[in-house]
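User: Run a structure prediction on this.
Assistant: Running it now.
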Amino acid sequence: MTRTVLVTGGGGVGKTTIAAALGVAAAQAGHTTLVLTVDPARRLATALGLDQLGNHPEPNPKLKGLSAAMLDSAASWDAIAFRHAPGEIAERLVTNPLFEAVATRFPSGQAYAAAEEMAVHLESGQWDVVVVDTPPASGGIEFFSAPRRMRELVGGRLLRWLTGAGLPGRRGLFNLAGRPALRLADALLGGPLLEQVAEFLFDLRTTYDGISAKAGVIEQHFDEAATLVVTTADPGPLREALRFHEVGIEPSLVVFNRALPREWASIAEPLEDGRAATALNDNLARWALEVRRQEDSRADFSGRVGTPIVTIPWLADAPVDLDGLRAVLSGAPTLTLDRLGI
């Protein structure tokens, strides 16, 4: 059985790096592992041993068992169209500008594409572990709500009303009466917008059965996965992490990244004499206050939620190779594969 680890949270908290580090740890433990990421920095792609990431998994040349892929939402949505719609309709969908907009510009569309891509790899049977670096939209929550939102889009009341329950009959009526009227309106507007909109809605409606069924499967994958919400002790990321609990998503762990060393809270004997010594003492005092603020933030967060909390220390240098990724988890002994069910 493939084990899934979902690494989520807002942008800029280091979740992509943590996802890569977990992938390295799993591969080193002998598991065939895929890290599925959204938009890694160039240095992180290099750390994973890849010149470039694409929609198809690429093996790491330096670590057996580790592969990585980067979600291409446009390519994933093309696959979704051909997976859930008849061939002729799928061809129309992928060339419709509105479909392209859903695929590339709307956070829910990108999140759903990531979720379906995850499901494809999970169900392939090729991997022991799949680590998913989720899209950061809405602090990561969009990824978990995307299956429901997509099901509501293609099966919602408005779309049913516009297209009708009996698709063949309604499309025939549209071709006879509606399309000529829309073409006339589009001629007045100077472009084929209205006809494209109508065509898109009819074609999108045909994907309902497939997307509805797949959305249910994806939600089951979510339920079975280990979910890590990554945050820092800063106010913005903390608010985003709290929202998971507010909307009823209970993560397996909350990971506080970039935690400053506790010993920094104890200022050494102050230096004496000179302006430089005074400036250094002031700086040390500020760092000590920041350590205490981070500790207070973690304690307050822990008191408000029941989710276990782990910390990952701040690193002076960002990881640029496998050794750097190994170092990410070396300072977090409580974040183990066993704890994630791997």
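The longest helix spans residues 275-304.
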